[in-house]
Amino acid sequence: MDWIDRLAAYWNRQGLLHGQLPTAHEVKEFEDRCSVTLPADVREYFLPLNGTAGGQYMMADEDLIAFWRLDQVATLAAEGVTNVRDATHWFIFADHSIWGHAYAISLALDRNAAPPVAICYNPAFFQIAPSFSLFIDGYLRRDPEILYPEPPYPLLGDA
């Protein structure tokens, strides 16, 4: 069973519905509008699942993680995160507890580079997985180092 099937089964066990599926044309429109090319694993995710039905506006799974639909995916910059270099190249695809923190993938202009996944606690921002499919693997294992890692430095205002 591949990771897409495992993710679908995991959500099914929780009674979660996936979002309305985008057409290949809608995926291409997203890529054109954002001047990006989705990595194969991200495209493989959006076409058969497309996040959870509530997407950005609902705490979806048992861990309060909402997976956004393609029509909701936005850059860190568009979501008001200003402290991250290249915030226009990091795209949020999920969040925890209505933006307690967000998960984003780099869709930088270098199409040959592996697109990492990072967590944004705002202001803390750091990489948590080298690829989308490895992030999903950690999510399915409920790996706290993927889902809720400690920031590598104190947040502003921490004692």
Summarize it:
With 159 residues, the protein is an alpha+beta fold.
Blueprint of the fold:
Elements: H1 3-13, H2 24-34, H3 40-46, E1 65-67, E2 74-75, E3 90-96, E4 101-106, E5 117-120, E6 125-129, H4 132-140, H5 144-147
Antiparallel strand pairs: 1-3, 2-3, 3-4, 4-5, 5-6
Helix pairs in contact: 1-4
Description:
With 159 residues, this protein is α+β, with helices and mostly antiparallel strands. It is built from five helices and six strands, in the order H-H-H-E-E-E-E-E-E-H-H. The protein has helices at residues 3-13, 24-34, 40-46, 132-140, 144-147, and strands spanning 65-67, 74-75, 90-96, 101-106, 117-120, 125-129. Strands 1, 2, 3, 4, 5 and 6 form a six-stranded antiparallel sheet that branches. Strand 5 (117-120) and strand 6 (125-129) form a beta hairpin. Helix 1 runs parallel beside helix 4.
Provide the descriptors you would attach to this structure in a database record.
5 helices, disordered C terminus, alpha+beta, single chain, six-stranded antiparallel β-sheet, 26% helix, 159 residues, globular
Name the overall outline: globular
Structural class: alpha+beta
Q: What distance separates the N and C termini?
A: 46 Å
Give a count of the beta strands, DSSP E runs of length 2 or more: 6
Characterize the largest beta sheet: strand count, sense, and whether it forms a barrel.
6 strands, antiparallel
Fraction of helical residues: 25-40%
Number of helices: 5
Write down the overall mean pLDDT. Answer: 89
Strand fraction equals 15-25%
H and E order? HHHEEEEEEHH
